[in-house]
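Hi there, hope your week has been kind to you so far. It would help a lot if you went through both lines with me. No rush at all, and the record is pasted right below:

***
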Amino acid sequence: MKSLWKFTDNLGTFKSYTAHLIKTLYFPLCNEKIMSSITPELRGDIKTGQDSFLLLPATRQDLVDNRWSRNFWVNIDKNKIWSATGVSKDVKQIAADKFLLEAGLLWHKITRANKSVGLKAEILSFVPASNEPVEIMQVTLVNISKRKISFIPTAAVPVYGRSADNLRDHRHVTSLLQRITLDEYGVIVRPTLVFNEAGHRINKTHYFVLGCDGRSVAPQYIYPTQEIFCGDAGDLEAPESILKSELPQKRSIQGREAMGALRFRRIILNPGQSSSYIILMGISEDRREIRSILKKFNNPQKIKSALDVTKKFWIQKSGLFIRDGNTQDFNNWMRWVSIQPVLRRIFGCSFLPDFDYGKGGRGWRDLWQDAISLILENPKQARTLLLNNFGGVRIDGTNATIILRSPGEFTPLEISRKQNKKTKFLTGFIADRNNLPRVWMDHGVWPLVTLKLYLQKTRDLGILFEQAPYFGEARQGTVLEHLLVQNLRQFYNVGAHNHVRLEGADWNDGLDMAEERGESVAFSCMYAANLGTLARLILEINKKKIRIAKELKNLLQKINYNSASAKRAQLKKYLFSLEPKAPAIKVDIDSRELAAELKEMSQWMMRHIRKKEWLKEGFFNGYYDNKSKRVEGRKNCVLRICLAPQVFAIMSGVATDAQIKAIMKNVQKYLFDKKLKGYRLNTDFKQELYDLGRAFSFAYGDKENGAIFNHMVVMYASALLRRGHRREAQKILCSIYEMAVNTGRSKIYPCLPEYFDAEGRGMYSYLTGSASWFLLASQKGA
């Protein structure tokens, strides 16, 4: 396959003549209030959250299978009906269309021209950067024939209008809640309830599809339900009202599946003439806002102005990491990588069609790693965000796992009961993903890793003494105390081999079946590094005394570090001391003694890992399974090596210079895919590991079982950069870029995907933490 797309300027704009042939391609459109995905056939969805989808929630496979789309029909006569988006049962006519996609930051335009029909359609789609909760679609029809053409245009947008959960939970019953209002310009749907048998809520959300022509004239007819528009066949790709040119029938419209089908007046175009139509699709809790949106975007001049503002906004966001020494194509690609942390802050991990991460929200790890890009962009602005984030830490050293997008999403049961009233909090926290009380053992690592970058950029040591609340507790502590709580807990939270317990998983969610006896050597390395960092920071602060929670002294008492059982007993003592509702008592401790204790802990962990986990094969073992057995090394003639333990051993300083050389040699030998030219996450273990995690039940070469997983590959480059191996690091970063832009294999738009599968296809576009790390590594390697 030839190149899927090609850049056309130095602002990240690209074009494609074949994008419509890849049915799983999707493109993001968004602002702070609304999120969309859109395909070359204008499939995809529009939503503001898990409970508010305007269009039917769409997975990657739904983009291929379902019939929902933002369609636009043209009736020239009963024998000549054309879908300007290419979504029709008329396969021959679609095949005759000449297709072009043009897209940029963040706008999307498809052009279809059909000589037999005599028309060309240009369909522009974008979400305004001015933050109105609306997706704008402007359709321009041009007569490309040598004769007059008379036709009737009809926009056709099916309205789902409810929670994604209702796809399999009372789909028909929730349609009975729909209340449809016929507006002069379209339809407004407001369900009576947000349906949830655990507790129904009065619904305040309005879903709307409104439209006008280029002269701001309203549609002539409106089809408010799918039954009226499609007829008994119910086929959105062959609606009876279009095929038979039927006007809307007077039927009951309440409690039905809603439809935003807007039929405009018949128009006659001379050769070369054009007509335009504006379709506004949005979600709002304020009925008055809908009217103001219509007024703001009801003619082509207003659309052009809004598009210009939107382009300027995203171009500015994307230009922070452009380097003169790079090629133009690489700089263009970097523009897309640069906005990915912003996209993930808006979309979370799950609001694009690859939503295998649950119900939309970002996780704890995402919160801290996405902050890396903000620190690189504007360190001072990052301060408030970082302080806010510490409010998700619990006093026992664990943390909330799901991050809400805005304070408006708080409910009284979901946020800490007592917060610092002087601080304006930007996000809220939910205790568990999908109501599962699960602990990811790596979570305590990331706050300090991110804060360390902030301190390197600002030297703002004062942030360590700012107060932050504890999640779910009526107490506060300094940022430094939060960091001590998180990292000291894990020093004592060890398994039989005296490494930190794996619990529910580390960064690799697929290692989720070793909760009782599993251990993560990989992140023991990182906790060792963090304890050393805390020791250095405390000395740098240059204060005689440090004030901490009284209970925390339980984790600073001298014990035998070689005894795993003694460590666990000490942790248990600390946890028992955290009595609910007990008054928060602070004590002063000597800062030099504290720093010395932390340094000793750090050095003990590093020595222990070097002594026990360096394998004769020339790399580190990274894990113990739920039978307390070592995972890596040579097992029954199968060489097992994972990339993550090597990365964190290098990054943390656990690996010596000689060990790094051996690791690089073996990573190249065992994990580098010569065909795809990328680095795999692990070798093929040749069996399922029910005592370690689901990852090894995946087909090898996909997801967390041996894919070219960009997050870890970029961190490998970052680790090598830290240890002075600049040339090798740049080679690794280049391998990711080259895989991404080899679109014959990757089959993605310009972006950094989460991973490349066994075929080299890019998977989970846009929403990946590897983007922030790529920006950081690129800046260090520049």
